[in-house]
């Protein structure tokens, strides 16, 4: 089929695929995250110490459910502590938008390629497309901003230097508490960047879908049935695909 040949050709292929890839990157980097920090509690009585206390956490960042045991530097006694905060709402919101964004762009690409006529019927396809694209742009902006804020809170709550302040043994001057290492943030920083890139991608595509609706021509149908006209508009046809 000629349309599919064109579709696969050259850089346009990238434009069709990119919204799906960007959505996958966004939810894989955030939803697939797991991190660890490690602290040491060096008691005045060395035998009570634990110099390597590992604390693991992961998506969806319900940190107040992350428990760990630390020595109290009083014989063998240990205390059970929890990290502070629940950042699941912003993380889950972000991942949900990414998943639905991926599903919609996949569906839209299929409809666009295999059901062109249905898409154009009564201009309903472009209309729905326009509304959904506006909604997704907005959602990407909101969820990326919320998740950027959530991430900075997660970073503060899992900073090893802050975590040792929770431990009663560390409030005693003679015991030495310190950070061994903190979590790696590159994956989550990437997820925020991809969130904003998705926003830019979808917002930019509002214009292309707007053109599809034909509203800028005073509501007149933009795609007459004549084949020569269709040929002329093929460029717009492809430029519109990044929408998905
Ligand atoms: C250290 O441990 C010993 C034996 O467990 C105990 O007698 C002593 O009081 C401890 N010292 C401190 C400072 O807790
Ligand atoms: C130190 O803490 C870890 C948990 O992070 C635990 O697995 C380990 O057994 C502890 N070591 C000692 C000597 O208590």
Which ions and ligands are bound to the chains?
Answer: 2-acetamido-2-deoxy-beta-D-glucopyranose
The string of secondary-structure elements, in order, is: HHEEEEHHHHEHHH
Hey, roughly how much beta strand do the residues contain?
Answer: 5-15%
Helix content: 55-70%
> Poorly predicted ranges (pLDDT <50, ≥5 residues)?
5-14, 219-244
Strands of the largest sheet, in order across it?
Answer: 2-1-5
Q: Determine the N-to-C terminus distance.
A: 21 Å
Number of domains: 1
Determine the mean pLDDT: 83
Number of strands: 5
Principal-axis shape equals: rod-shaped
Count of helices?
9
Structure, explained:
The protein is an alpha+beta fold. The chain has one domain. The protein is 57% helix and 14% strand. The protein has a 3-stranded antiparallel beta sheet with strand order 2-1-5. Helix 2 packs across helix 7 and helix 5 packs antiparallel against helix 7. The longest helix is centred in the middle third of the chain and has 34 residues. The radius of gyration is 26 Å and the shape is rod-shaped. The two termini are 21 Å apart. The C terminus is likely disordered. It binds 2-acetamido-2-deoxy-beta-D-glucopyranose (2 copies).
